[in-house]
Inverse folding.
């Protein structure tokens, strides 16, 4: 039977990942955090000191990367890198790494593989536009910049890091700029995606809104 894909796109800090994870749990679907895949390759390039213009190595590393999602844990080549992929260093570099066309092709193929065997909720930047243009359900999350920065700051605090909100805001703006203006699969709303503004919503409301849509109740 054809598998169901629920695509959730939008800028960082809009609440996509938490919503996607909880929605997947409620529906008993597989949750795929596509951003984590770009982060994992970025981590690998940084730890192996591969220069950003060494396309051959990037393609080699990405092709051979064994990426596994195990509940809340994320494994790269058998190693648990759940924490490392969220480091500031990776966060600062991931937008430019994810702009590499050849790398995107490899990861997009891997993302499509997951949906061959499972119903999936997948979040990212190009899921509804490029990876699954025919996804049954598409959502596009937006949120006011101040709220996004405040939420990100809280995430960092939860992970033991205290970072000034101004710095986070600058970082978010920079990432938005790269993600929306890049040539390859820029972040944009698919024509048939439902826009969800999460500025004044709590996670449970977001999850319920999506759930009702998926269940055909709204
Ligand atoms: O969702 P995130 O912040 O973990 O994503 C990290 C980066 O990866 C983000 O700056 C853009 C990129 N990304 C992408 O280009 N395409 C995706 N499908 C998911 C993430």
């Amino acid at each position: 039977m054809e598998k169901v894909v629920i695509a959730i796109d939008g800028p960082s800090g809009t609440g996509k990942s938490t919503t996607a994870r909880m929605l997947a749990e409620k529906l008993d679907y597989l949750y795929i955090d596509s951003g984590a895949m770009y982060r994992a390759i970025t981590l690998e390039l940084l730890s192996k000191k591969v220069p950003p213009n060494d396309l051959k190595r990037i393609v080699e590393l990405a092709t051979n990367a064994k990426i596994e999602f195990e509940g809340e844990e994320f494994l790269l080549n058998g190693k648990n890198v759940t924490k490392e992929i969220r480091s500031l260093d990776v966060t600062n570099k991931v937008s430019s790494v994810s702009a590499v066309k050849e790398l995107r092709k490899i990861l997009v193929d891997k993302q499509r593989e997951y949906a061959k065997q499972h119903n999936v909720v997948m979040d990212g930047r190009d899921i509804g536009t490029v990876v699954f243009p025919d996804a049954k359900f598409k959502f596009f999350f937006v949120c006011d910049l101040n709220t996004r920065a405040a939420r990100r700051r809280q995430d960092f605090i939860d992970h033991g890091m205290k970072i000034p909100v101004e710095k986070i805001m600058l970082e978010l703006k920079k990432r938005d700029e790269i993600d929306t203006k890049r040539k390859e699969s820029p972040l944009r709303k698919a024509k048939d995606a439902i826009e969800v503004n999460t500025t004044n919503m709590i996670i449970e409301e977001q999850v319920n809104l999506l759930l009702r849509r998926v269940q055909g109740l709204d």
